[in-house]
Design brief:
single chain; 363 residues; alpha/beta; TIM Barrel; 8-stranded mixed sheet; 5-stranded parallel sheet; 13 helices; 31% helix; globular
Length: 363
Amino acid sequence: MTTISLRGNLVDIPRRRIFPARISIVDGRIDDIVELKDRVDGFLLPGFVDAHIHVESSMLLPSEFARLAVTHGTVATVSDPHEIANVLGVAGVEFMIANGGQVPFKFFFGAPSCVPATVFETAGARVTADEVGALLDREDVWYLSEVMDFPGVLTGADEVMKKVAHARRLGKPIDGHAPGLRGKDAARYAAAGISTDHECFTLEEALDKLACGMHIQIREGSAAKNFEALHPLLSSHPDRVMFCTDDKHPDGLVAAHINDLCARGVALGHDVFNVLRAACTNTVAHYQLPVGQLRVGDPADFIVVDDVTRFRVKRTYINGRLVAENGESLIERVTTQRLNNFHCNTRRPPDFRTPDERARALG
């Protein structure tokens, strides 16, 4: 039996209070929480969760992504393996799950719903409704990934609706992707079972989708940045918003992750507990994830920060294991089989000749 004891100011998000406490961890779970009268240093709070991300955009394996993310206090991600599936199909999804399972980090992968993304795309693979159903039947596939073909939902396209039906049959969440969709069309999209959207770029659009019953994932990634437009939702709808990055490039991940959005939210005057709901608890509740929330009996997934304004992470724990300390990852690198689906025939100069004299080469 492994026992760990830590002291700090415990941030109790549901009860909206902070108090000095000693927590005891036995075999990776919170065994006891004792409120103290003594003054203590540092703050203990649940680890951060990225509510929607394509790990592939970091250009890292899941295992390497985890090594960086934990230094910023991230303990889990809701991950859509759409990008690798677009190249390798189901084998790519299985690769991500297997590699992510080799490290002490909580990856929750979904079944890609739109591979290829559109009928106009040339992709390396196609994932059918039957294959989506088989993935969703697995215990280690948690949800139906973003349904990008929202026109297909609105028109009742057979293949799209079969995928949605598989998720509904199993009671697994269905993620959305419907940029600009408003009004009655947004309501019809949500009525099909779509429960989230991370593509809102105006506050008005987000409010429309909230009115339809959807949850809004406030996205701040390397390409699309919607935090400035959507942060008022932290105060108006604190129970219905989550933080996500969608696409996080490696240089951005080196610098910060969800911790940065927490600091920005508090700096803008939002209540710290509302900010932390978006960063730590709403995602866990929506997807019913086995991620600890600093309660007795929970997995010991938590972080130690200097304060609850800048959120500089001192230590990160997952299942009671120290995985990062003072900006240094303690997760060891793993070796893995590399998959490849790049095929190109030999090309010679005559292959590039064109009868159009206006053609130009880009250098």
